[in-house]
Amino acid sequence: MIPTYILAMIYYKYSKTLEKNTSTLNTRLFLFLRGLFGFIGIYCTYYSIYHLDLSDATALSFLNPIFISLLGHPILYRSFNFFDIYAALVSFIGVMFVVKPSFILNNRFFQTFYNNHSTSEVISSVNSKERAFTIMISLFGVLAVSLSYTIIKSLGDSINSLQPILWFSLISSIGSTLILLFFNIPFHLPLNFLELFLFFIIGISGFFAQVFLTRGLQIERIGRASSIMYLQIIFSLFYDKVLWGKFPDIWSFCGITLILIGTAMTMINRDKENESPDHKPRYIYLNQLKSNELFEEDK
Fold this sequence. Notes:
This is EamA domain-containing protein. Keywords: Membrane, Transmembrane, Transmembrane helix. The protein is built from 14 helices and no strands. The protein is mostly helical. The chain has one domain (2-13, 23-298). Helix 2 crosses helix 9 and helix 8 crosses helix 10 (193-219). The longest helix is centred in the middle third of the chain and has 28 residues, at 128-155. The radius of gyration is 21 Å and the shape is globular. The relative contact order is 0.18.
């Protein structure tokens, strides 16, 4: 997050397009909450990856688009778009076929059709109570990430797309440092040039990913923008093949097909979302309506 913050700050200082400010208290509060929820989501995600099977943690993290579609109504003052939710569910089922989490692999019905003995028996490294607690932490992280994305959409074009990135990367850097100090976790520097180069690539990629993600959430319907995130699982399979020579099995191809179908469903649906002007949160919009009514009565 530190490279992301540095790059965002450099561009922020030297860009001539940043005329929009964050002088209002509400805007600063929402930017802080975006950074806070984003950091909580990242921490919970890595916590679940450490304590769960990687496939299970990945599957849980892809609940984001469904949560985001559900949060659109109470926060963005828009009607439910069931088409986006259906499309997200189709893509999520596709993700299940690709990542094949342990709770599916251990199912006898699935084992009957999945002829791969090396993965048919998945034994979790944690007991049932620890697993249930970790799943709750993971779901809380999914909710936090969904809230952070919804906040970006609620702010809309009232801010520059770099401002949420600055707050997110700054709060994440501070929060990570505090956790390292509080839990006495050692910090490891890169040991050679290759590790340093890989960290540099991660920082650059993370910066551009945040820029495009933030801008996409600002200008596109939130249900459609979040559903596009499912495509990253297809890119992951592609890189697996190119870098590691791992060829997807028949279940992965079925999952890819479902993900593409779900994504196509969101692209075909061109209904405009019914949200408040300027993408403002619902309670702010209602307060403004009430203030306008009182002003008209005084006149």
